[in-house]
């Protein structure tokens, strides 16, 4: 580590090299936190978690009994061992509580004063965080499985909603109205995600086995339908123009928006190039997925290579994003894991499960950091051999400021 600091000080390494190395080390060495836990306030399974993108301090979670809880992740005690305290809940006694399972929660991307929740009670609610009273409530014809707000939008304030209906609804939070309907799927829509690169690009996954990319500026809406065979002939006609051979219930973009991962009930994880819609054919192996709702998996930030965290029964499997290599398995839950989300600055991860627990996964920053000595002398032109050591030299990522 001293070598990396020296190279950074002398300008030998690029400004973000040290960040990439340390972020990558943390992302691939996660373990169940020995010093932090989360106060349990939900009587049912934890279906969804989100960490506010403004400060990274507040976590909102939703459960199978309709309860929503907000926790403070900040350690104000100054002690090594601490519990993340619950600040408030929308409990069963609250007149505004969801009647059935909460499937998705999300902070407003630019302000912690608002968050949004959706439920199988056919409603989506926009909450005032300070009063815990809905500022707006939207009712749909069927259960709402997924919703998402763009993390980068400056020219629109649209919230995409996927439900039992075959159409995606775009809700304008400014006007409070349903402004647009996207038609293209033939069955329930289980997952929707805005691109973190292009604010008008939206992805959706459905029970019709399809993934569609939408450009909401186009009159037709649909930009492309992803094909797992990349247009090649196939012996199975029903698989033409489908992303999976099963329901698509998980979607996640890489932080740079250049690639997208989809997860299907065919037990396959697929990586797509978002610029041309091509399947990259990265083989992650068989990953069991029999969920009837959205599977919320996570991708690391500021790491090279990217790291993927996939719920797998009661465990969480870690994969190399671009090679498909399985790097580790995290064990700690006692029942099905439903969701996991990463905290981008420290690479911590939070997971929710049917065991009603939210667990924190952290790197052991107090432990021994294994970095091999760099021998950059002219007489010994020996390459760094450790995984994290190679990152600083082979880092091909562009600066976030470019």
List keywords for this structure.
402 residues, four-stranded antiparallel β-sheet, mainly beta, 30 strands, single chain, disordered C terminus
Give an account of the 3D structure:
With 402 residues, the protein is mostly beta strands. Helices cover 7% and strands 39% of the residues. It is built from three helices and 30 strands. It has helices at residues 2-10, 17-28, 387-394, and strands at 31-32, 36-38, 46-51, 58-63, 68-72, 82-84, 86-90, 102-107, 114-119, 123-128, 133-139, 144-149, 158-163, 168-172, 177-182, 189-194, 201-206, 211-215, 222-225, 248-253, 259-264, 268-273, 278-279, 298-299, 307-312, 315-320, 326-331, 337-343, 348-353, 358-362. The strands form eight sheets. The chain has a four-stranded antiparallel sheet, with no helix packed on it. It has a four-stranded antiparallel sheet with strand order 3-4-5-7, with no helix packed on it. A hairpin with a 4-residue loop joins strand 14 (168-172) and strand 15 (177-182). The longest helix is centred in the N-terminal third of the chain and has 12 residues, at 17-28. The chain starts with a helix and ends in an 8-residue tail after the last helix.
Short description:
This protein is mainly beta and 402 residues long. Helix content is 7%, strand content 39%. The longest helix is centred in the N-terminal third of the chain and has 12 residues, at 17-28.
Number of strands: 30
Q: What do the pLDDT scores average to?
A: 88
Adjacency order of strands in the biggest sheet = 1-30-29-28
Straight-line distance between termini:
26 Å
Largest sheet: 4 strands, antiparallel
Strand content: 35-45%
Q: In terms of per-residue confidence, which ranges show pLDDT below 50 for 5 or more consecutive residues?
A: 367-402
Radius of gyration: 21 Å
Give the overall shape, derived from the CA principal axes.
globular
Question: Which structural class do you get from the secondary structure elements?
Answer: mainly beta
Helical content stands at: under 10%
Number of helices: 3
